[in-house]
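question for whoever is on the cluster today: can someone run the full assembly for these? two chains, 887 residues total. i dont have access anymore since they changed the login thing
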Amino acid sequence: MALSSVLFMWTFLPASVILAAFVRRTRVSNILLLILSLLFYAWGDPGHILLLICVTAADYALGLLLGKHRTRGVLALSVVFNLGVLGVFKYADLLLSTLDRFVPGDLPRTGGTLPLGISFFTFSALTYLIDLYRGRYPAEKNPLNMALYLSFFPRILSGPIETYEHFRPQMENRRMTVDGFAAGLRRFLYGLGKKVLIADLCGITVGRIFNLPEQSLSGAGAWIGMILYTLQLYYDFSGYSDMAVGIGRMFGFTLPENFDYPYLSRTVGEFWRRWHITLGAWFREYLYIPLGGSRKGMRRTVRNLFIVFALTGLWHGADWTFVLWGLYQGVFVVLERTLPVGKKQQDGKRRTLGEALTSSRVIGPIWAPLLWCISLVLFRSSTFAEAADIYRCMFVPSLWRNAGTFLPQMFTLQTLLAAVFGILGCGPLAAVSRTCRPVGKAAARFKNSAAEAVYLAFVFFLSVLVLAGGTYQAFIYQRF
Amino acid sequence: MSIKKSVKTIYIVLFILLIALPLPTWRVCSALGAFGLDAANYENRQTAEKPVLTRQTASLYPTQYETWFDENMPFRDVLLTLNGMLEYYVLHSTDQTGVLVGKDGWLYYCGAQANDEDPIADYKGTNLFMEDELSQIYQRMEAAKKECEFYGKRFVVMLVPNKERMYSEYMPDSYGDPRDGRLKQVNDFLTEKGFDVVNTYDALTAYKEAHPDDPIYRKYDTHWNWTGGYIAARQFDTFLQSCRLKEPDAVERAELPPQNYDLARLIHLGNVLTDDHETMPVNYWEETGETAETGETADEADPASKLLAPGVTRSINDTFTEYVYNNSSESADPRHIFIIGDSFSPMMTDYIASDFAGVTFDYYYNYTPDMLREYDPDVVVYEVNERYLMNLKRFTLDDLMPIVQAE
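^ ran it for u. tokens below:
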């Protein structure tokens, strides 16, 4: 049950809010939210609800053990257990299919489906256990609190990844207020609009373009498809994060932010501080810094960056295309940090590429978004061959055929509007409102105003129309 | 920045109205039958049944329930109609697969089903048959022709152009002008090979040029209208040298009531886009002085009841896939015509029936060789619309099931 589905919005969400509104005591409210979260998960993935419960129980026990014996051995056991669960359910088939290329005979496959949200709840569990080992808090004694932390329904499917340190006080001391509820609903409606009116509409055209036979895909088509996909991915994920943050707010929780206008970034490094912020923070906190970060010389820094980005890629999907995608990010982050460009400065040093990009008014604004857009070919493709075909269309001039032969069929006015609003909303408007005072004042007046509420009601209405439209699958004839 | 009290109240009201109330309101309204809520199925498919939760179905229950809920969502019909109207009237486009909104609100079919149909490729001429495909077509047509000739029958191929080709002036500019496509390719190929081919494109184009204000295809539908069917019927009957149908300008026209059109239904505006006023040629037969009974009583209020010529009776099977006409008029051509065709045929067979002693029409997916044996016609016609021309590669009089299975 997606947060943007009508079923969720018209049944689960109102029922949850109304039930929670009648509960005064935080402890009872936590139990209610836990039950709702388990129901939510069981509904979405009934086959793996037991897995979630078992992982929760195991992590609870490991937490108690770590609380008593704060040793590297117990920590290693905790890390191995959680990464093992992730490995078995998410990466086993990748490993087997890779080994299959090097060993004789056919290795079996697990053939299992990926448990919903497994990357999120195992990473959440790891933060709990690692920070516990670091002595940031005592072990959680209440298993229900532990379970709520791992399974809280707004964020279990797509994050944001929240530290236990941040969530724990909210389980003990929070209030469901009208103020928070209104702010949460406002945020939820923005997220819904981003997901349904921009991401999903762009996605229709993206699907049409990349479903074309290879010989029909032109350079323009491939570029337009990738630009739309770049918008789709951002609005899909950030929209979902907004909905999660908004729902959390309705129940009195403050979930961490996951996006900060990443397409305004001037470097790839900056991009990763603005895109999926909680994942970037997780890798920085629990991998990059423990590996030595940037404190042990440039070679170690470069090595650490490549490790982090290769694993970031792998986290996003169990395929080598994702690993290459991650390494691609790493290459540019390293180049931005290390590559000297331009003339020597007053201090006798040349600026790094990253510093040059940060101050560049021309290349800076397009560098990171363009590289990101190009990298998403790998992210979207299921095989290297598929990615290579799209790259050929994008970069081989002889394939830049006349796009007019198919684009009109792919590109409806709905998509055009979604793309225009998408491009304006992913950064340019925010940048203008920061630099242009009248626009900034108008934006500030609009924020939290009655006009904004009416606008969001309209967004909701349009979203429901589009969602309803998506359920209509008429056939011209009922044949055979 | 905190939210003002009045704005907070607005959000609470929005939550109640937009999120909390729709489902209970729907339940109450549908139970009371309020607002004339329409739960009819316009989708030409079996929608999901409400699942029952059992131990065996538990793992599938959520997915099945969500599918059922989506297809029975509160106010779905209203929402779909509003969505369709927003797309059609405001955005002049639609995201419904298979439909293209043209100029002046004309709707076109892009093809979204199986069977490789692609009217846009037909229009652009980008899907011409390759040599080996033409060879397959030749083999199939030759086999059908020989089989007919063996039994003393004549085999005729009747070609019907797509609406995109006939009304290209309403296609969006970005699609350019129509190019010679499969229709011309197949027509030229079969004609050159000596087959009997009736390409209705010629007669339809001639009529359209002479009568620019009298449409022969429907604005919101893939098909020709009754006038288009009449023009095609005249061309066919003339081809068989047995046409007694009056010139189109000389026939009486009966106004048809508003209809529900297939492309309008595809964008859920079947009940909204009904303004394509259509007339039906009636009293089209040349007077012979005979007063034979028609077999159906003419009803002044129902134009369709005036459709059949004197002496013609018609029976249609329960699934509307087989039409059988008998003509008792002494002046009728004694031959029996057997048409294997698609959804274009029913708009012309009523007219053809006035010229021949017997006409049988079967949808190509309903046809079986037994029918051919049962009706023992003199002329076998394979009517095929431009977007179904690939069916020629699989056509056989022995058994048309290969076409059906391929789809």
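summary bc i know u wont read the tokens: Chain B has one domain: 107-406. Residues 400-407 of chain B have pLDDT under 50 and may be disordered.
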